[in-house]
Each structure stands twice: as structure tokens, then as C-alpha cells.
Amino acid sequence: MKKIKLIEIAHGRSGDKGDAANVGIIAYNDEGYKILSKYLTAERVKKHFEGICLGKVERFELPNLRALNFLLHNTLGGGGTVSLKHDAQGKTLAAALLRMEIEME
Amino acid sequence: MKEKIRIASGQGFWGDLIDAPYHQVTKGHIDYLVMDYLAEVTMSILQKQKNKNPELGYARDIPELMKRILPICKEKNIKVITNGGGVNPLSCANAVMKVAGELGIKNLKIGIVLGDNILDRLDEIISSGAELKNMETGEPITSVKDKLLSANVYFGAFPIVEALQQGVDIVITGRTTDTGLTLAPMIYEFGWTKTDYDKLSAGTVAGHILECGAQSSGGNFLGDWKSIPKMAEIGFPIAEAFPNGEVIITKHENTGGRVSFETIAEQLLYEIGDPKSYITPDCVADFTSIKLEDLGNDRVRAFDIKGFPETEFYKVSCSYSDGYSASATLTYSWPEALTKAKAADQILRKRLENLNLTFDEIRTEFIGYNSCHGPLAKQLTEDDINEIMLKVAVRSHDFYSVERFGKEIAPLILTGPPSVTGFAGGRPKPSEVVAYWPALIPKSLVEPEIKIIEL
């Protein structure tokens, strides 16, 4: 078992889509993308964001860009100008996902 | 037909680097300057300004900017396309014409795209059967109709193309998609048609890369951000477009920042949903088809982009008034900074409760500790915490409650936990909460209108 932190193999960007946040994660190389596609499931992301993402998590693959896109529903406290959150647009959530540690077989 | 055109991004939002458009038109060759000024919340702000003064309601930076760049654009034959007309593109164009007159510029032609503002037509539109249901909640718009502040249809590239075909120097629009601003000159110059789905999608992808300004050329880059050169002189992105739909993203030489596979990939992932279906009024682009080739020297080629036909709907962005909010901060220092901030929050909440105020939400955050990453933030021991900024924000439909909240903050300094500072600027005032209502409208119910004015 090898443990890696996502920030070692990927970068990304996040933003808002209404009350949902979008979190895009991009692997630095093909090997990294294999790890992302295998281990970074919607369930795992949902669990990682427990207490932050209150809705479902959707996952989309962009293999040409070595990237995954996640939509985190019901996450931004109402979104837009309604949200009282300091990070109302979810700008820091990509970094938050890169905190994840993955145990590889 | 031109073999290629260079389209430069001048603004990523209203409030972006003021000098960016000037650098784009002076530091190298470009054919088009495109500037996105509109965010969802911007439309409601502009509508309020227009309600107070019918001559306003557009990005007021534009006339001032044009004073600086218009002579250069005329000399170099650079066309300017912007959606900064907001809810009053006509007044914006008139203001630019006035500036041009003062500068002694001859032969200026401005194309104006109108018809996106449907606030005054809503009754007619609703009675013709369009429910304008909220895309997120499914509620019909009638539930907020009395509180609506703005209602604008997102037009795409084709109304701008129509203006360009009339030989204009500048196109000023209301609510046009950010991507349409960049796609339009490609359609116009290369003679693309409404069924060139792949090419329209390629132009749309280029538009997505350009629409947030330097966010694709090294700004806000989460990769190896410390290696980005000369961030203070960051160059904004430029799309070199070719008739076959290929696009090379670059920036002017001798500017800071970076254009690489990584910086472009980050921007492509920004604020997207299902990447197979990036819906615009012009086409549905498939972001999973995008191939990127890093050519080095701040040049990235985007190619093989696929797309599908447009849908039958325009997106409508409405905003409505939804109560009031206010927020306040206080800073607590070591020792026990976090414990003090938490105690102050509890005292404040008890006082608000004792006053029988009503709030839809009270939110407390500890800035410098976990306001960004919440439960994912690393737990620190009190001794490792030097200071904490307590932020409390409230939202209510009762104006008085929000106003009274603002009066309960400063007293915490003398009536709460010690070693507290950072209260300045007076009592926080309630501000109106502007909520957003996204909906769809059949394209047949709205018609873009092109108006040309000349000097």
C-alpha cells in the first residue's frame, strides 16, 4: 500500500454554478490521470467534502485533458449574493480536494 | 478571407486590471479586442443605476477606456467587442461616440445589440406560455415576479456578426455570452455558418479560455504558481484563430504570466458542468473532445474540437430582491484566540436571541483557521494559533433585524472577551440580497435587434 496526497499528482480550479460548486482536477501526467480515474470516485469526493457538500456529487471525465470535473450540489450556502459564506464562490474548493490522501493498492 | 485573426481578451470581469486593454492594443498585433464586463449580479446593479438615471446602466469604465484606446484602435484597425452595454447599450454607445467626437475621430461606426432586456416584456412573455421556471428549483417565475430587478436573455455570437457585417468599428451589447464575444469575429471573418457545429464549438472553447482574462495565462494558477514569471506585468490571453477551427492561445511577447497546457487546462475546467454538453446560444460544445498541444514559448494549440447543434432555447438570467444581509469581523489575538472568538460568537448570538430578532441564517466563520476548508482544515492547538478573525454574517427578510445586528458588533469590544481589535469603518449596514433566477425561454419569443450609429 502506497499513500499519496492528491496535491502531489494534480492541480485544478474550482468555481460556482449557482449553489453548486464545480471542482476540476487535472493530473500532471498520464500516470497521475490513471490514479485519478481509478481512485477519485464521486463517492470518495462526497465523503471528503462531508459537512461542506450537502447534496449529490456528479463526476465527469475529460481524458484528453487528464482531468476530472466534479459538480458538488448544495454546497455554497445558496450561491451568488445570497450566500453568507466567506468563500461564496467555492474558489478554494479545488485546493480543499487536493488535501485528499489516497491509499493505492 | 484572412488566414488567421488574433483576438485579445481585455477584461475578465468588471473591475479587472484597468490597463489590460491598453496593453493588448499596444504591445503587439491584434485584430480584435473583446471585453467581458458582465456577471450575473452585475445586471441587477446596472438595472438599479438605470432606474435612478435612465442614461446609466452600463459599465462606466468604457467611455474612459475608449478615450485612451480608440485612437490606437482606429489607427491599427482593431475592432472592439464588449458586452459592457449592460442594461443600456444605447447610452453606452452614445457615451463612446461623445468621447470619439471630443478626440476628433472621424468615421466611427458603432453596432449595438439590443433586445436581450425583457424585464418590461415579461407579462407578454408569460402570457404567451413561457413559464420561465427556475432551472434549479422548477418554480414558476410568477412567485418572484413582483420582486424582479432584472431579466436578460443571453444572446450568442450571431447578433454581433450581423453588426460586424455592417462594417462597424465597435460592437456594444447587453447580455451576450462571454464566449459569443470571441466566437463572433471568427464567424464573421471566416464565413462560418450556423451549421458549422465543430467550428462554432472551437470558437466557443476559445471564448471560454479568454473570458476570464489572465486566469488562462498564469493568474490564479493552482499548479506551480510560484514559477509563473513577472506576475506584476501579466499578459492577458490572445486567441489566434484559423479558418479550419484551430486555435492557438498565446499572449504578447515580453509580458509576464504563462500560457501552457496546465494554465489552459485549469481555465477549461473553470465553472463547467457536464463537459460533453457546454450549452451556448450558438452551439453545444463537447469539452471532452478538446485536444491541447503545448507548442512552447507561451503557445498552446487547441484542436479536434467537436460540437452539436444549438438548442431551441435561450437562457434567461433574472435577478430579484430577496431580503437583506450584513457581515462584520473582529480579530482576537493569542492566547486562546480561537476560544475567545467562539465565546464572542456565543455572546453575540445570545444577545440577538434576547432581542427577538428574526434571521433566515446566521453564519459564523473563523478566518485564518477554517473559513475556506471547513472540517477539512488542519486542527491546530491554541498555542499554534496567533490570531483569529471572527466573521459573523446574517441574512433576513426583516430589515430591522439586520440593521440591529450591525449595532451589536462594536459593543463586543468592551463587553466581551479580551485582546480584540480590528473593528473599523462603523456599523455594518444592511445591503439588499439580490438572488438569481436562471430560466429558459424559447428562441422564437425574443429577437435580437441591431442598431448602427455613426459619427
Short description:
Helices cover 25% and strands 34% of the residues of chain A.
Overall description:
Chain A has helices spanning 6-9, 30-39, 42-48, 93-97; strands spanning 2-5, 10-17, 20-27, 57-62, 67-72, 101-104. Chain A has 105 residues and is of the alpha+beta class. In chain A, the strands form two sheets. Chain A has a four-stranded antiparallel β-sheet with strand order 2-3-5-4. In chain A, strands 1-6 form a two-stranded antiparallel sheet. The longest helix of chain A has 10 residues, at 30-39. Chain A is elongated, with a radius of gyration of 13 Å. The relative contact order of chain A is 0.31. Chain B is of the alpha+beta class. Helices cover 29% and strands 25% of the residues of chain B. Chain B is built from twelve helices and 19 strands. A ten-stranded mixed β-sheet of chain B has the order 11-12-8-7-1-2-3-6-4-19, sandwiched between helices. In chain B, strands 5, 14, 15, 16, 17 and 18 form a six-stranded antiparallel β-sheet that branches. A three-stranded antiparallel β-sheet of chain B has the order 9-10-13, covered by helices on one side. In chain B, α1 (20-26) runs parallel beside α3 (61-76), α3 (61-76) crosses α4 (89-103) and α7 packs across α8. Chain B is globular. The relative contact order of chain B is 0.14. At the A-B interface, β2, β3, β4, β5 and α4 of A face α9, β14, β15, β16 and β18 of B.
Main features:
heterodimer, A: 105 residues, alpha+beta, 4-stranded antiparallel β-sheet, two-stranded antiparallel ribbon, 4 helices, elongated, B: 455 residues, 10-stranded mixed β-sheet, 6-stranded antiparallel β-sheet, 29% helix
The whole-angstrom Rg of chain A is: 13 Å
Widest beta sheet: strand line-up of chain A: 2-3-5-4
* Strand content range of chain A: 25-35%
Output the structural class of chain B: alpha+beta
Q: What percentage of amino acids of chain B are in beta strands?
A: 25-35%
Query: How many angstroms separate the termini of chain A?
Result: 5 Å
CA radius of gyration of chain B: 25 Å
Largest interface: A-B, 45 and 48 residues
Shape estimate of chain A:
elongated
Overall number of strands of chain A:
6
**Can you tell me the residue ranges of chain B where pLDDT is under 50 for at least 5 consecutive residues?**
none
User: Low-confidence runs of chain A (pLDDT<50, min 5 residues)?
Assistant: none
Q: Helix segment count of chain B? A: 12
Name the helicity range of chain A.
10-25%
Q: Give average pLDDT of chain A, whole number.
A: 96
Helix content of chain B: 25-40%
Mean pLDDT of chain B: 96
Question: Could you tell me how far the N terminus lies from the C terminus of chain B, measured between alpha carbons in angstroms?
Answer: 28 Å
Biggest sheet overview of chain A: 4 strands, antiparallel
Broad shape of chain B:
globular
**Assembly form of the protein:** heterodimer
